Amino acid sequence: MSFFDGLLVAMEPGNLLACFVGALVGTFVGVLPGLGPVATIAMLLPITYHLSPAAAIVMLSGIYYGAQYGGSITAILVNIPGETSTVVTCLDGYRMAQKGKAGIALSIAAIGSFVAGLFATGVIAFVSVPLADFAQQFGPAEYFALMSLGLVGAVVLARGSIIKALAMIAVGLLLGLVGTDVNSGLQRLTFNLPQLADGLSFAAIAMGVFGIGEIFSTLGQKRSGAQVVAPIERLWPNREDLAASAAPIARGSIVGSLLGVLPGGGAILSSFASYALEKKLSRHPERFGQGAIEGVAGPESANNAGAQTSFIPMLTLGIPSNPVMALIAGGLMLHGITPGPQILAEQSLLFWTVIASMLIGNLLLVIINIPFVGLWTKLFKLPYEILFPCIVVICCVGTYSVNKMPFDVLVLGLFGVIGYGLVKLNFEVGPMLLGLVLGPMLEENFRRAMLLARGDPINIITRPISAILLATALILLCVILLPNLRRTRETVFQEEA
Amino acid sequence: MLQRANLWAGGVLIFIGAAGILIGRTLPQGTLTRMGAGFMPFWLAVIVLIFGCIVLLEAVWNDERVSIPLHDLRPAFFVTLAIVAFAILIETAGFLISAFLVSMTATLASPGLTWRRNLVQSVLIALGSAVLFLGVLQINLPLFPR
C-alpha cells in the first residue's frame, strides 16, 4: 500500500464528498466565532459512526484544517478570531484590511495555508512509516512511558494552573475506567447500572463538555451589535506581496510541521511561534502590528501545517497530542480501530486515504475560500439564536443514534452541566478528554508491563526507551512547575486573551 | 467564601477522589504483578484526592474569584431540560415530535424571541434534522409516534 493507492480511494465519490463536506463545515465553523472545530468535531463524531471508517476520518480531519482557513476570514475582515489559532492573524491582518488590503491578506493567508498543507502532507507521508516501524518494537512498558509523556506534554500548554490540568487528566483516566473490566469481567464504578457496563459514551461526554457547556456561557454573554466588515478591493497579491511572503510561508510551514508533532502542540502553538519568529527575524519589527504581510503569511501557514502534522503521533503511536486528536482517536475507536502503530500495518489503506485526502482537501479549500469569500462574510452574521437549537438537536440525535440508548442522552446533559461548572472553576476540559481516551489503554499497558516484570516497577525505568521517555516526562513536569517559567507562560497566554 | 474558585475546585476534586475510593472499595486490588480490577481506580482516585488537597491548600492564601452570572442560568436550565426531554421522548414520540420539542425548549433559553418565531424556527429545524439524519445519513429511527 502506498500514497497513490490512498489517493485513488480518496477520489472515490463517497470519500470525495466526505472531504468536501468536511472542508465546507470546517470553513463554516472557522468563520463563526461561537463555534470552533473542537465543538464541531465532538458534535459530528456520532454521525460519522454511520459512515465508512475512511470517510469518517477524512471528514473529521477536513473540519480541523478547514477551520484554519475559515478562521482567518473573520480575523482579517472583522478583527474577531473565528478560531483560537487565528488570534495572531488579527494583529496584522485586520490592520491590512483597514488599509484597504483585505483581499491581499485573505489570498496570502489561503496561499500560505495551501503551501503549508502540501508540505505537511509530505512530512506525514515520509515520517509516519519509519516512526510506526520504530514503535512496533515497543512493549507495554514503552507504551506506558509514551502515554505518560503524551499526557504530561499535553499539560504544558494548558492555560491556568498546571496542578488543576494534571488533576483533570487523572479525572479523565478515572472516567475512562468506568464499565466492565476486560480482564476480570467485574463491573467498575458503574453504580450497578447496566447502561454503564460498556463504559461512558465518549461521544456524549465530548459533546457535553465542548458543545452543550459552551452554549450556556455564550448565550449568557451580551454580544456586541453589528460588526463592521472591511470591504475587499483587490483580491490577488502583486509580485511585491508574494516576494515578501515567500520566506515567511516557507518558515511557517517548517515551524508548524515541527510543533504540530509535539505533545500538546497543534495549530494554536504553531501560529504563535511563527509570529514571534517572523517578528524576530524581520529587519523592521516595528512594522508588526501595523499591517505587516509577513505577520499574516507566517502564522497562517504555520497553523495549517501544525493542524495536519498533529495527526502523526495519533496515527502512528496512538497518542493524541491535543483535544481535537483525542476526538479523532475516539472516532477511530467508534469504528473498532485502536489508534497505534498497527494502523499502518492493518489499516494501511485507511491511513493513506486519510493522508491523500488532505492533499485534495487543501485544494478544495482554496477553491471554497477565495472566490466565495463574500458569501462567508454573510454567514458570519448568522444569528446564534438559530444556531444553538440546531446544535442541541444534533447533539441529542447524534448521541442517541450510536447505541440507541436514551441513557447516553442523559449523560450528554449531565456532562453539559459538569463541563460548564468545570470551566467556571478555571479547569481545562481538554486534558480530561485526553485522559478519557487513554485511560483503558494506559491501564492495560501498565498491567501487562507489570506482569512481564513480575511486579517490579524498577523494570520500566531500566528499559532504555521507556527510561528516556519517562525521564523526558519528568523533566518536562519539573520545568513547568518551576515558578519562573510559570510566570512567562502566564504572560504568553495573557497576550492571547 | 462563595466566590472563591480554587476553594471550590479543590473541594470538587476531593469529592471526586473520595467518591472514587468509596465506590471502588469492593473491587479486588490484587498485587502489582497481577493487578485486580480495583488497582487503577483506587490509585487514580488517590491521585485526584491529593491534587484536590494541593489546590485547596493553594487556595488558602492565593485564590481567584469566580461568579456564576445569573443570565447563564436561564440557558443552562432550558438547554438541559430540552436534552432530558429528548431522552424521555425519543423511544415513544418518534423523531419529528421529539426534535421539534427539543428545539422549542432549547430556544426558550434565549430571551427576547417571540413564540411565533420559535414555532416557525423549530418546525424547520425538526424537518431539516429529519432530512439530515433519516434521509441523508440513513439512520434507522421511527419518524412518527408508535
UniProtKB/TrEMBL annotation, chain A:
UniProt entry keywords in alphabetical sequence: Membrane, Transmembrane, Transmembrane helix
Ranges where the DUF112 domain occurs: 16-434
Metal-binding recorded as keyword: no
Keyword set includes Transmembrane helix: yes
Entry superkingdom: Bacteria
Parts of the chain that traverse the membrane: 15-35, 47-67, 103-129, 141-158, 165-184, 196-216, 254-277, 311-337, 349-376, 382-402, 409-427, 460-482
Protein name per Swiss-Prot or TrEMBL: TctA family transporter
Organism per entry: Microvirga flocculans
From TrEMBL, chain B:
Magnesium listed as a keyword: no
Pfam families given in the database record: TctB
Highest taxon listed in the record's lineage: Bacteria
Spans through the membrane: 6-24, 36-57, 77-102, 123-144
KW Protease (keyword) present: no
InterPro entries (UniProt xref): DUF1468
UniProt entry keywords in alphabetical sequence: Membrane, Transmembrane, Transmembrane helix
Segments forming domain DUF1468: 8-142
UniProt name for this protein: DUF1468 domain-containing protein
Lineage, opening ranks: Bacteria, Pseudomonadati, Pseudomonadota, Alphaproteobacteria, Hyphomicrobiales
